Amino acid sequence: MNNTRIVILGAGYGGLYTALKLESLLKDRQDCEILLIDKNDYHQLKTELHEVAAGRKTSEAVTIPLRILLENKRIDLLCAEVTQIDFAQKNVMTTRGKIDYDRLVIALGSETEFFGIPGLRTHAFMLTSLKDAQHIQSHIQKMFMLAKNERDENVRQTALTFIIGGGGFTGTELATELADYIHKIAKETNMDEEETSLIVVEAADTILPGFDVKLVNRAVHALESKSIRLMLKTPIVAFDGNTIHLKNNRKIQTNTLIWTGGVQCNALLVKSGLKCGPRGRIIVNPFLESVDYEGVYVVGDASLTLDPSGRPLAPTAQLALQQAEIAAFNIYAELRGKPRDIFIPKIVGQFVSLGGRDAAGWVWKFNVFGLLAWLFKRFSVLRYLYHIGGLRLMTSKLSQLFF
After folding, report:
1. CA distance 177 to 172
2. Of the candidates 169, 168, 163, 177, which has an alpha carbon nearest to the alpha carbon of residue 125?
């Protein structure tokens, strides 16, 4: 008897959790095999990458080897990059060969959206992976060393001007962490912190669009208290690696632009022929199945999910985990001949860290600030670690998350 092969593309929040839930649901089905495909041999906590970029956390704190997470699980792992999907023939082409599937879960995440702005893709830094975070950290150190040994004032100023393009969650969290990091390096190198500039450039008229105004005001206060300059209603129109060109004809000389201005669906999926919505996100039915092909489920950043008013929900880890649970159950239900569940998103809270042990957000419709908000954010990560790795994983990361 042929086995039913379930292939999951991507070991991020959505893909990994789908695999683990499916393995639990299908424990008694020896005729089913689960294959998880990812280019890395580790799972990364992407919500914590800004702290790696600012030197507050090590790479070990935000990564977990997949061999540990999949230990004693009936889940096979293939470390490879997906290059093509043939939905008609039900196979996936990877850098390590062709893989056939009976059910497919697409969880390939998102890519940075550059909006066609000249020079961004070539010259700007991004924060989408551990390598990106490490690159930002080492680059900032390099800029301080360059400035310390440079007598030309213009060159020094350019090196010590750090720009974050985009004032959403990632941009705000990164800015508040980098402010502390810049202060630390200036002290370590005996340089005048007054020479440094940290600026958040945002095209909208506010940071954290969609957030409650009280929470936005709290975040703005946190930024300003750390001497972070806000430039709102100021779109970036070009960057050549040394100069940022703004829509109001102003220019900023800098060697450092970290672009956090938005994400779009993985380019591979945009070219796959699946029906797409805004930002290339894949249109799915109420069961999280592609509207084009049966047995192809889409979770995480790649999936287009609407709120009750019909507006697309922002892709978050919280949403990806909820989608993973429903997608896993629906594949299990299909194989069991049972009714599938409709996906109904339930956003119970949202928090933005503001550097150190400060944060702002809401939970169950209540606004929370300061240390309490930071604790809520930490405990949400701990809860996730417990779900994917049990008490042992949660306790092993405890000190890294809180200290």
Report:
1. 9
2. 163
How far apart CA 7 and CA 372 sit, in angstroms, is: 40
Specify the 3-state DSSP secondary structure of 253: strand
Ramachandran angles phi, psi of 274, nearest 5°: -70, 145
- Is the model's pLDDT at 1 over the cut of 70? no
165 with 259: CB under 8 angstroms?
yes
Q: Classify residue 291 by its DSSP letter.
A: S
pLDDT tens digits along 228-253: 999 999 999 999 999 999 998 899 99
Separation CA 96–CA 99 (nearest Å): 9
The model's pTM: 0.94
CA atoms of 172 and 94, how far apart (whole Å): 36
Residues 151, 153, 158, 161, Cα dihedral to 10°: 110
Where does 110-266 have alpha helices with state H?
Answer: 120-123, 130-148, 153-159, 169-188, 213-225
For residue 67, the tally of other CB atoms under 10 A from its CB is: 10
Length of the chain: 403
Tokens at 71, concatenated: 């230990």
Q: If you ran DSSP here, which 8-state letter would residue 290 be given?
A: B
pLDDT at 271 (0 to 100): 87
Cβ-contact 92, 106 below 8 angstroms: no
Domains of the chain in sequence order? 4-39+80-112+263-347 (3.50.50.100), 120-259 (3.50.50.60)
**Dihedral over alpha carbons 207, 208, 209, 213 (to 10 degrees):** -90
Quick one: tokens of 320? 């990806």
CB atoms within 10 A of CB 138: 12
Place of tokens 């360059």: 146
Angle between helical axes of 370-402 and 13-25 (0-180°, round to 10): 70
Active site residues: 173
- The owner of tokens 């919280």 is 318
Which residues does 190 contact at the CB level (< 8 Å), separation at least 6? none
CA–centroid distance for 174 within its chain: 12
Q: How far is CA 255 from CA 42, 127, 170, 242, in A?
A: 31, 16, 20, 5
